[in-house]
Design brief:
The chain has 4 helices and no strands. The relative contact order is 0.07. By secondary structure, the protein is an all-alpha fold. Helix content is 78%, strand content 0%. The longest helix has 39 residues. The chain has a domain of 78 residues.
């Protein structure tokens, strides 16, 4: 066990340190032009809105299934409706907060120096 650790330490110290070739480079779509940037923002906004609409519809559908099963006394359907409503509610919250979540990840990556 100690021989493998010492071999790894020897190998790691023998390899010279290489500078990061992408140091100081930040991703930007500004190079492609204002029209392209505006089009990308519109398409992403439309996809985001479509996802929110579909998730809201699925959430309402699952609540309806849950309510109908509750009124009729069907325990199996009651569990399906409740589980579906929970899942779509969480998914809707995640989709609605996607910009905050992605912004937080990018802020952590920037703070870490990535």
């Amino acid at each position: 066990m100690f021989s493998t650790i010492s071999n790894e330490i020897t190998i790691r110290t023998a390899v010279p340190l290489i500078d990061n070739p992408l140091d100081g480079v930040t991703p930007s779509i500004d190079v492609l032009g204002v029209k392209f940037e505006g089009a990308v923002q519109m398409v992403l906004g439309a996809l985001w809105a479509l996802a929110l609409i579909l998730l809201a519809g699925a959430f309402i559908w699952n609540l309806m299934k849950w309510g109908i099963a509750r009124n009729r006394g069907h325990s199996d359907d009651l569990e399906d409706g409740a589980a579906g409503a929970k899942k779509t509610g969480i998914a809707f919250g995640a989709a609605a907060g996607a910009s905050v979540i992605i912004g937080g990840i990018l802020a952590l990556a920037t703070a870490a120096g990535a």
